[in-house]
Design goal:
The chain is of the alpha/beta class. It folds into four domains: about 55 residues; about 325 residues, no CATH class; about 100 residues, Immunoglobulin-like, CATH 2.60.40; about 150 residues, Single-stranded right-handed beta-helix, Pectin lyase-like (Pectate Lyase C-like, 3 Solenoid). About 25% of the residues lie in helices and about 35% in strands. It has a 32-stranded mixed β-sheet that branches. Strands 12, 13, 14, 15, 16, 17, 18 and 19 form an eight-stranded mixed β-sheet that branches. The radius of gyration is 33 Å and the shape is globular.
Length: about 900
């Protein structure tokens, strides 16, 4: 037998010790697991409580939602399970950033984390590429977002500019950001509701994102404020305004408070895409009008009807009200599109932040700085209350709540990446609130005012300094942003390469002088300094040196050109008495709310501007003659009742080669013309308002029969915008550019002819039309141009001597049958993409005869066409060289 040594343990004892050791660590690990699980549960429940209760803390509703937390936790778990069982079908995009560019972004993020918010500039952009499917898209990106939630973890927010010639999802300017920064599903549903109501709002949807090979998860794509946003929602390219908020954030960095810069009255108005605007004479002119209108409104020289599209603006505020979305009405979140046709500003919805709740009771619209100014005007209040009643009823009794819940149910499983709590939309709470909105009065609404500014604070921009170049004499306008006085120590001028010199004293102005303080969130009192009459302010760089009262530091302020506040609307209207007194040929038909002109030849003194909403009836044999540059402007129904023997004529007066033309922009009643001759229009230009047509008709049903448009010298002989129209046996002759331009309209062109046209015969964008039995001869460009997602059916047309017979482009659909195309120098039919944000087009040809054409059917790669059922081969095609 073997004898154990003194230090040798028995096998049984060793086993027991090993068991105890294993049990000990198993218990420790189990305990740690329980602690971790318990902690995770506390975190989830804590986050749930915080995210569910925090938005309600300000209005005392927190207790009511605590009881719903268990149900919300279960819902989050079920959404997560659904996401696991049915993986996301979101589009995946891959963002690739070079190492040095990624380091630049990291450095900018570190700076933002240090300051507490992100301050951006154009220098922050770096090159990157986005891969989507088989496409690689060249872009420039930078970090975006004001607050640090945009830079949290791996989900950084990016502003993306697609480089020329490319697009992603039909967009060239957009943001990538975490769904959390816009409250997950809430922003998408809110913006979609705005678009349903005809209000401009960015497209907003979700994708899966990979950055340099790392899966980042679900991100939101938010369209930026660009031409594509406008065109996708049936608006013409135009200026989109914002209030400059940089001093607002810079003051917070310097002083820990927004202070006196939390005030739109001291914020400069700026356009998006300022570089593009500055290079375009038309957009630059529109910018001047837009800023002038807004300044005129804020200075109380113009009313809401003169400045805004009243219906859309009131509807926007009412939608914000029923969603309780006060964040969308913060002045620094508000965006305004200047519609060049209506010469009015339209709201662009943005950044609702539905989880944020206003402090205190009352209407959301009564909070903030800007909307209360609108509500001072009875004309705005009336439309707002009407829209509020309609929308509230739709939420309580209609299908709005059902629609919102359906959209939410579609989005939540996609957004639920883990067990984090995503707050559901408070539909029931909003419905309860909406039941009271129809009865609410515009009572006073008190809100917290932070402390006034102090002289010892450091301010980023104490004075706004503007030069008015169109004023006579030119002048400098100085606006104090602060609630303390600011002294102007000097104003100087310097030419490039020359020595800076102080401006010669102007009579009545002695330097130094004080610019009076501006009360917190109040309107400033500007000081206007006239310049010497022989000084051209555009030839100099002007600078003011100022000092805040009680401080030693001096500030050098560049004086920039800024449009003056307008005192009149860009779109004119005349009181009835004035119209009758100025134009004795007018007869008032009060029962029909219209003016009548009887047969005769009438020379119009100046322009014929009709009262708001008043129609015009021209009887057979009426001839209205206008001087050069003068026009007929109406917002009511135009009824022109000519006959074959006695047509209605609109033409230049003796000694004038052209006249401006006719425009009806806001008519709610239909136009009807028969046997009308319109001659020698050159386009309207009034105080910055420039509709493109010799005749422009927008937003109403239109029927024109047996009429002639001859000798037009404007961009379009007839421009139809957002109209239902019928043109029958209408002749267009001797037109320098396009004959008919139909934008976002539906209608039919039956019979008639087009000849000697300097541009396109028929040009349609975003339209659905039929063309039947028309002749188009001697057309310099395209006989029929179909663009921007239009659908056009062409039947029994004869096209002769053109560059291109028919062009289908940019996701449009063309159906061409039983027609003849002869002598086309480019092609009989072309099918291609001109604007990449739309994509390829198509054409279907049946029984089309072509003679003497350079090419019969020319189809760019990606687009498609068939001729009598046979597919046409696609070819590489550079449209820049083609047209």
């Amino acid at each position: 037998m073997r004898i154990r040594g003194a230090n040798e343990a028995s096998p049984r004892r060793t086993s027991r010790e090993l068991f105890r050791f294993s049990l000990k660590w198993a218990l420790i690990l189990a305990g740690l697991s329980l602690v971790i699980a318990y902690s995770a549960t506390l975190i989830v429940v804590g986050m749930t409580l915080f995210r569910a209760v925090q938005p309600r803390l300000s209005n005392g509703a927190a207790r009511a939602v605590i009881r719903d937390v268990p149900a919300h936790l279960v819902a989050s778990a079920m959404n997560h399970l659904e996401a696991v069982r049915h993986p996301s079908e979101l589009e995946r995009i891959h963002l690739d950033i070079a190492f040095k560019d990624l380091e630049k972004l990291r450095a900018k993020r570190a700076e933002a984390l240090r300051l507490g918010n992100l301050i951006t500039s154009d220098d922050d952009f770096v090159k990157a590429s986005i891969r989507h499917g088989d496409e690689s898209i060249r872009t420039e990106i930078r970090l975006k977002g004001d607050l640090l939630d945009h830079l949290d973890g791996d989900k950084w927010s990016f502003r993306v500019h697609v480089r020329k010639g490319d697009q992603l999802f039909g967009m060239r300017r957009f943001s990538l950001q975490s769904p959390a920064v816009r409250d997950f599903q809430g922003e998408s549903i809110f913006l979609e509701h705005l678009r349903r109501e005809g209000i401009l709002a960015p497209r907003y949807f979700f994708v899966d994102l990979t950055v340099n090979g790392k899966d980042i998860g679900v991100m939101a794509i938010e369209e930026h404020f660009s031409k594509e946003l406008l065109e996708s929602q049936q608006r013409r390219e135009g200026v989109i305004l914002r209030f400059d908020e940089n001093p607002f954030w810079m003051n917070r960095n310097l002083n820990g408070t927004f202070g006196p810069f939390n005030n739109p009255y001291v914020a400069t108005l700026k356009p998006f895409r300022s570089g593009k605007v500055s290079k375009s004479p038309n957009l630059s002119a529109d910018l001047d009008v837009a800023i002038g209108l807004m300044r005129g409104f804020m200075d109380r020289m113009l009313g809401p009807r003169d400045v805004f599209d009243l219906e859309l603006m009131a509807r926007f505020v009412a939608i914000v009200e029923i969603w309780n979305a006060h964040h969308a009405l913060s002045w620094h979140n508000m965006r305004f599109y200047y519609n060049p046709l209506t010469a009015r500003l339209e709201p662009v919805g943005f950044d609702a932040h539905l989880s944020a709740r206003p402090q205190g009771p009352g209407l959301v619209a009564r909070t903030g700085h800007f909307i209360p100014l609108l509500l001072e005007h009875e004309v705005f209040r009336e439309v707002f209350v009407r829209e509020l009643a309609r929308l509230s009823d739709e939420l309580v009794n209609g299908d709005l709540a059902t629609w919102a819940r359906t959209r939410e149910a579609e989005l939540l499983p996609t957004l639920q990446e883990g067990l984090e709590y995503i707050a559901p939309l408070p539909i029931d709470s909003l419905k309860r609130r909406a039941t009271n909105l129809t009865r609410i009065t515009l009572a006073s609404f008190e809100h917290f005012l932070p402390p006034l500014g102090r002289p010892d604070m450091l301010y980023p921009e104490p004075v706004k300094a503007y030069v008015c170049t169109e004023c006579v004499p030119p002048r400098i306008e100085l606006v104090n942003a602060l609630p303390v006085p600011v002294s102007v120590l000097s104003i100087s001028a310097k030419q490039s390469g020359a020595v800076e010199q102080a401006l010669a004293p102007v009579e009545g102005v002695e330097v130094p002088f004080d610019v009076p303080p501006t009360a917190y969130q109040g309107s400033p009192t500007p000081i206007r300094v006239p310049l010497a009459s022989d000084l051209d302010p555009q030839a100099f760089d002007l600078e003011a040196v100022v000092r805040v009262s009680g401080q030693g530091q001096k500030h050098s302020i560049g004086v920039v050109r800024y449009p003056i506040a307008r005192r009149a609307s860009a779109l004119p209207a005349a009181p009835l008495a004035e119209a009758l007194a100025r134009h004795p040929f007018l007869n008032w038909e009060g029962g029909s709310n219209r003016l009548r002109v009887d047969a005769g030849v009438w020379d119009v003194e100046g322009s014929l501007v009709l009262p708001e909403g008043v129609g015009l009836l021209l009887m057979a044999g009426v001839e209205l003659r206008f001087a050069e540059g003068e026009s007929l402007v109406s917002s009511g129904a135009l009824l022109f009742r000519g006959t074959a023997e006695k047509p209605v004529r609109l033409r230049p007066s003796e000694g004038h080669e052209t006249w401006g033309g006719l425009a009806s922009i806001r008519s709610e009643a239909a136009h009807s013309w028969n046997h009308v001759v319109v001659e020698a229009t050159a386009g309207i230009a009034r105080s910055g308002w420039r509709p493109t047509g010799g005749v422009t008709l927008r937003g109403a049903d239109v029927k024109i029969s047996n009429s002639v448009f001859r000798g037009n010298r404007s961009e379009d002989a007839l421009n139809l915008v957002r109209s239902e129209f019928e043109l029958e046996n209408v002749e267009f002759d001797d037109t320098s550019s396009d004959a008919v331009d139909a934008d976002f309209s539906n209608g039919v062109i039956r019979g008639g002819s087009f000849s000697e046209i300097g541009g396109d015969g028929i040009d349609v964008s975003g339209a659905k039309i039929e063309v039947d039995g028309v002749e188009l001869v001697d057309i310099a460009d395209k006989a029929i141009s179909v663009g921007e997602a239009s659908r056009v059916h062409v039947h029994d047309v004869r096209i002769e001597r053109v560059a291109t017979g028919v062009a289908s482009k940019d996701r449009s659909e063309l159906f061409l049958e039983d027609s003849l195309i002869g002598t086309a120098s480019v092609a009989g039919v072309t099918v291609f993409t001109k604007k990449p944000e739309y994509g390829p087009a198509s054409a279907t040809l049946e029984d089309v005869e072509m003679n003497a054409v350079a090419r019969e059917v020319l189809v760019q790669m990606g687009s498609n066409a068939t001729v009598d059922g046979e597919a046409v081969a696609e070819v590489p095609l550079d449209t820049d060289t083609l047209y």
